[in-house]
């Protein structure tokens, strides 16, 4: 089986390759094609993967390609994880946001819309190319903002594109651990919403919902990250466990304040850290060790300003070990390739599961996956207090897609002005002008 990773020179590629190396089953991936625009990074990445494969029998072969069409030929699966405009672009979004008093994070609010407007033309071109070069391939989209990008790509690829994120299962895993339990075949997680905007509404173990039990135990709630972020009192009032990205909504003022006080934004921090990493890894005799150290640092500092604003301390040891992102991707790929029925939380067209949203809206919900793809399980339930937010943010996503696909500036302005994290039309207009002045690639908006 052949896997093509678009954005394969990206930092998280070794996580996926490590998971592939662990897979010893028949029908596993035997060849990996890395596609990237950056030749130097591809070369360094190939050295890191070679170090990972050292001593492993029948490790998947790795090829590198700067020509996407060539890398896509013959792919059974395509992983798409690209960052249009790089971390520099992400850093600009944060600064433009802060300059106008709004959060510029890469997937929520202004940052999410601006990043999507840069990304959409490229991912649509990619979707067309995949359709031409590998028409039977399944596409697993990691590119952020993942829900919106998946919805746009589904216009070309239909149900062959599936979006993934590690945050829902990460939340479920931490909550189960607080109850002394683990994710397993006997566990069914109820989750509903959009990407980076959803809630765990049930943790059923052998058919018994254990969430009410957790909600009765404040100390257990505050034993894990999201519990500390939102506080046990608020989580008990909600009666559901919010995705960590909802913190930007429920504590927008505090997070903004903490972002304003920080000496560097997240992207600025990562830009320096990653530049150092690529330089060191390019020269190091053992680039794998350099990568591992950089990965640990990246996990340790994840969402630091949110944690600061909530007065939380360091992250827990178990949250620094990876096993989210790549595990969801590999589980999804195996379920489709081997027709192994599995239950996974994925970004797919709604198809009636949230009964008040239309069928084509991409939502993040539990799905049954088999050889025919991902099928949302009927009856996903967004808590009542979340309905308005989900409806509004879906509207924002769709106006963003409309702007990205048609070049409509009014649609881009509608998206920004209606976003719950942007508090005036004047500010929305100033943000759009700021983004257009900063990013030449947004000149298509007229
Ligand atoms: C989580 C999110 C991803 C996001 C990543 C960002 O895993 O679910 O969507 O890409 O964190 O982390 P970063 O290190 O880039 O801030
Ligand atoms: Mn995510």
Structure explained in plain terms:
The chain has 446 residues and is an alpha/beta fold. Among the domains are: 2-163, NAD(P)-binding Rossmann-like Domain (Rossmann fold, 3-Layer(aba) Sandwich); 168-251 and 313-320, L-2-Hydroxyisocaproate Dehydrogenase, Chain A, domain 2 (Alpha-Beta Complex), CATH 3.90.110; 254-309. The protein contains 21 helices and 13 strands. The protein has helices at 13-22, 39-53, 68-72, 86-99, 109-133, 146-157, 167-178, 211-215, 218-221, 225-230, 232-238, 247-250, 252-261, 266-283, 287-300, 304-309, 317-320, 325-337, 387-406, 409-418, 425-438; strands at residues 2-6, 31-35, 61-65, 77-80, 138-141, 161-163, 187-194, 197-205, 208-209, 241-242, 342-349, 362-370, 373-376. The strands form 3 sheets. Strands 3-2-1-4-5-6 form a 6-stranded parallel sheet, with helices on both faces. Strands 7, 8, 9 and 10 form a 4-stranded antiparallel sheet that branches. Helix 1 runs parallel beside helix 2 (39-53). The radius of gyration is 21 Å and the shape is globular. The N and C termini lie far apart (44 Å). The relative contact order is 0.13. The mean pLDDT is 96. Residues 146, 165, 167, 196 line the site of manganese (II) ion.
What about the largest sheet? 6 strands, parallel
Return the CATH topology of the domain at 2-163: Rossmann fold
The gyration radius over C-alpha positions equals 21 Å
Ligand species? 6-O-phosphono-alpha-D-glucopyranose, manganese (II) ion
Identify the CATH homologous superfamily of the domain at 2-163. Answer: NAD(P)-binding Rossmann-like Domain
What structural class do helix, strand and pairing data support?
alpha/beta
Number of helices: 21
Overall, the morphology is globular
Euclidean distance between termini CA atoms: 44 Å
> If you average the pLDDT, what whole number results?
96
CATH class of the domain at 2-163: Alpha Beta
Assign the CATH architecture of the domain at 2-163.
3-Layer(aba) Sandwich
Strand fraction equals: 15-25%
Work out the number of β strands: 13
Low-confidence region ranges: none
Question: What strand order characterises the main sheet?
Answer: 3-2-1-4-5-6
Helix share of residues? 40-55%
